[in-house]
Hints:
Blueprint: H1 3-20, H2 27-47, H3 55-68, H4 82-109, E1 123-132, E2 146-155, E3 163-165, H5 169-178, E4 193-198, E5 209-216, H6 224-232, E6 236-241, E7 250-252, E8 258-260, H7 265-276, H8 278-289, H9 293-306, H10 308-334, E9 341-351, H11 353-364, E10 368-374, E11 391-396, H12 407-412, E12 417-422, H13 449-468, H14 474-477, E13 486-490
Parallel strand pairs: 1-4, 5-6, 5-9, 9-10, 10-11, 11-12
Antiparallel strand pairs: 1-2, 2-6, 3-4, 7-8, 12-13
Helix pairs in contact: 1-2, 1-3, 1-4, 2-3, 3-4, 6-13, 8-9, 10-11
Amino acid sequence: xxxxxxxxxxxxxxxxxxxxxxxxxxxxxxxxxxxxxxxxxxxxxxxxxxxxxxxxxxxxxxxxxxxxxxxxxxxxxxxxxxxxxxxxxxxxxxxxxxxxxxxxxxxxxxxxxxxxxxxxxxxxxxxxxxxxxxxxxxxxxxxxxxxxxxxxxxxxxxxxxxxxxxxxxxxxxxxxxxxxxxxxxxxxxxxxxxxxxxxxxxxxxxxxxxxxxxxxxxxxxxxxxxxxxxxxxxxxxxxxxxxxxxxxxxxxxxxxxxxxxxxxxxxxxxxxxxxxxxxxxxxxxxxxxxxxxxxxxxxxxxxxxxxxxxxxxxxxxxxxxxxxxxxxxxxxxxxxxxxxxxxxxxxxxxxxxxxxxxxxxxxxxxxxxxxxxxxxxxxxxxxxxxxxxxxxxxxxxxxxxxxxxxxxxxxxxxxxxxxxxxxxxxxxxxxxxxxxxxxxxxxxxxxxxxxxxxxxxxxxxxxxxxxxxxxxxxxxxxxxxxxxxxxxxxxxxxx
Length: 495
């Protein structure tokens, strides 16, 4: 809850308490509180912007203020003796306190949260690009898709440059529609401020920056905290939106305008049927319990066979990632970030199905030097061939506690590999969602939201520093006492 929002709630309760003890406090106290409430609301609307979650507090504050002013107070609340008036007054105040508690709860459940401050020395800029796959010959299975890119990069913004909103009103409403929520429910996300400045000039340094491509399943921009952290540390991060509503409900055009995507219900329903079928769930459970490498391989192959839509989707998205790298070569010659991209040092980070995309790209495109899978089951060709690029598997805690989702691929990797579990985390603990407040808390694990964001960011940054920048990563050799929630199995191979 923002400062003036909190002030409005505190003044509201103070005004109600003053009414409760009106015989023992001076009338001027009640008058002062009655006047301060609308003043605080006006300041809040002017400096912080109003939001629907505060409407109950606004209405109740106006009623309490009006009834507290001596000139407007109703002297006789009911006909009859003093006893009936006292009962009427107490009942009214009790109802007021209940309503005030409800009014205070709504903005707490839907907070205007804070994105963690990036820890690096660079300030962060953000810009966009988009291109059609058709101009590059298309991708098998779905030619002509528009690929959208949102970049975070080291920047030198003007001192008075305004911070970018976490999510525009158009984007939040597209997301609400995709989540089957009332259109206005997520409007407050437009009030969340990031640490990025739109179209800020790139930082004036001689060196080029490594590039991190992000495939985030569910929401293209669901990795803002991670992207800002990496950009502040000297990386260019590009979140990739592939125009498929099953991956994100919106993408952007070249100017950063939101393009809401029509929900492809038939295709999405097919994917959902694959992922939620009883056979697939049983295979996953067995895969987590078996200790036999041969049986694990057989089960992973069976998963591929039973999920043809998912496998085809992963391969298509991986092929589009290669087209994104082609596009980056063009932008490095002529674009906004020209001559700033070190395309000899490219990594792919993916969440959920995006983690499988990261593995597929590492297998198929030699230009990618490292990959990260954030809590995804691996599918595609990587099941058959060992990973030949350094790879980080970062996972939540499985229902079967000793189990690791991708331990067979970790053990069979032909390059450095790391298998890491975050105790207390669930699938939805990755990305920005843990910061969103109580209304998503039922979907999260026991680890505190901001803490999990920090842990994930630290692990990903340490891995990329080691394999793209050559900076030693002691975190994977012996986890620091600062991260007791990490369970790490480090790769034993060089490369």
